[in-house]
Amino acid sequence: RYYDMIKKIVNFVGERIIVSVHCHNDFGLATANSLAGVYAGARQAHVTVNGIGERAGNASLEEVVMGIKKLLNYETNVKTWKLYEVSRFVAEMTGIPVPYFKAIVGDNAFGHESGIHVHGVIENPFTYEPISPEEVGNFRRLALGKHSGIHGLRKLLEEQGIYLSEDKLKIVLAEIKKL
User: Fold this and answer.
1) Which of 24, 122, 143, 171 has the fewest beta carbons under 10 Å from its own?
2) Residue 10 pLDDT
3) Paired sense of beta strands 111-112 and 20-22, if any
4) DSSP the chain
């Protein structure tokens, strides 16, 4: 519905007026509606860092920019590698923390614990990460826990210069899962 509405407006005003979209997140659709509006021809999207805004918030800068870039294949000229840093700065200045599971800039956005996820992301990051963490200034976090597998444990240990046999890895993994 939002695409159709913006498309009608764009067609009516033509090139003489720049159409902007300004979406609130009342239904959890601020990013989706902003992308639909841009796809329909809006040339500006009003956004806020971390989606901070009235009521349920506004369309999130980091989500809209990366959606435009990766899903619509449009260029924005935004320095995407600064998104994580800007997000943290705004959180610090406003006192509003970034939710742990926040898309793109949350601390768990590129976090993996599950054995199958870790194995997949080690072999080919795009199996579970449609955006590389470095592209947005974030980084991958591999965690050890009850869902971990041998591949993630091996990777984390080898990054620390620790190399264990398969048998010893199984013992260590069993102890981690107990904890």
Assistant:
1) 171
2) 97
3) unpaired
4) -HHHHHHHHHHHHGGGS--EEE-B-TTS-HHHHHHHHHHTT--EEE-BGGG--STT-B-BHHHHHHHHHHTS-------GGGHHHHHHHHHHHH--PPPTT-TTTSTTTTEE-SHHHHHHHHH-GGGT-SS-GGGGT---EE--STT--HHHHHHHHHHTT----HHHHHHHHHHHHH-
Q: Which residues pair with 45 in a beta bridge?
A: 21
103-131: per-residue pLDDT in tens? 999 999 998 888 888 888 888 989 899 99
| Residue 118, pLDDT score | 83
* 60 vs 99: CA distance, rounded Å: 13
The two tokens of residue 158 are 């080898």
Q: What is the pLDDT of residue 120?
A: 85
For residues 76 and 83, give the distance between their C-alpha atoms in angstroms, rounded to a whole number. 13
Characterize the bridge pairing of strands 141-142 and 111-112.
Answer: parallel
Give this prediction's pTM.
Answer: 0.85
Please measure the distance between the N-terminal and C-terminal CA atoms of the chain and give it in whole angstroms. 50
pLDDT of residue 46: 97
CA atoms within 13 A on the CB side of 172: 17
> Using DSSP, how many helices (H) and how many strands (E) does the chain show?
7, 4
